[in-house]
Amino acid sequence: MPFIIAIDGPAASGKGTIARALAAHFGFHHLDTGLLYRATGAKGGDPVAAARSLDASDLTRPDLRSAEAGQAASRIAAIPEVRAALVDFQHRFAEQEPGAVLDGRDIGTVICPDAAVKLYVTASDQVRARRRAIELGADPDEMLAQLQERDRRDSDRASAPLKPAPDAVLLDTTHLAIPEAIALAIAQVNMVRG
Ligand code: CDP
């Protein structure tokens, strides 16, 4: 049975960095599920049709990391039919040997509720805004407002809202350097793998 690591958390909390590092360390596959929603939003037109026809080439668009793509993603991500259209792809990805790391908002709660390890990665709003502002070369105050708006929408939606699974381990990266956060995540996985 493949070993599944589910990583959820709000925008720019560090979950993508941790997910990539875990996948590299353990030799697992990695899926940034946010890209599926960003690519669906970026296609334009009817979001349900866009999600149903999503293919690998849609995920390589250069503009997917922008703040605008993030906002568009969070709007279409609230539509239950969009989420349903993306479930099979995520399940198939998670079934790959020897294991997979998936990061997003609903991995531990909805997509992979039986994951061997669940992490919920957070950081203060200010720290997350600063990190994302540096990443995108944007204004920190504007980023703060955007992230808070997106987190609110993601947390308040009826379909697969952003929230920690009851059995998720919380990892607050506010005061952690990247290598420290990664080391804690690796230790958590090693505890389960034995
Ligand atoms: O990188 P960042 O955390 O800013 O965002 P992302 O993970 O790329 O996700 C972009 C948006 O897609 C989120 O704000 C969510 O609305 C949505 N999303 C989701 O609903 N479910 C997921 N599993 C992943 C992303």
Classified by CATH, the class is: Alpha Beta
Strand order of the largest sheet: 2-3-1-4-5
| CATH architecture descriptor text | 3-Layer(aba) Sandwich
Low-confidence stretches: none
Derived structural class: alpha/beta
Number of strands: 5
Helical segment count? 10
Content of β-strand: 5-15%
List the secondary-structure elements in sequence, H or E.
Answer: EHEHHHHHEHEHHEH
The fold-level CATH name is Rossmann fold
Please tag this protein with its features.
194 residues; single chain; globular; binds cytidine-5'-diphosphate; alpha/beta; five-stranded parallel beta sheet; Rossmann fold; 10 helices
Describe the structure.
With about 190 residues, the protein is of the alpha/beta class. It has a single domain (about 5-194), classed as 3-Layer(aba) Sandwich (Rossmann fold). Helix content is about 55%, strand content about 15%. The protein is built from ten helices and five strands, in the order E-H-E-H-H-H-H-H-E-H-E-H-H-E-H. The protein has helices spanning about 15-25, 35-45, 45-50, 65-75, 80-85, 85-95, 105-110, 125-135, 140-155, 180-194, and strands at about 5-10, 30, 100-105, 115-120, 170. Strands 2-3-1-4-5 form a five-stranded parallel sheet, sandwiched between helices. Helix 8 crosses helix 9 (about 140-155). The longest helix is centred in the last third of the chain and has 17 residues, at about 140-155. The protein is globular, with a radius of gyration of 16 Å. The two termini are about 15 Å apart. The model has no long low-confidence stretch (mean pLDDT about 95). The structure holds cytidine-5'-diphosphate (CDP). The site of cytidine-5'-diphosphate has 16 residues, from helix 2, helix 4 and helix 9. Cytidine-5'-diphosphate (CDP) binds next to helix 2, helix 4 and helix 9.
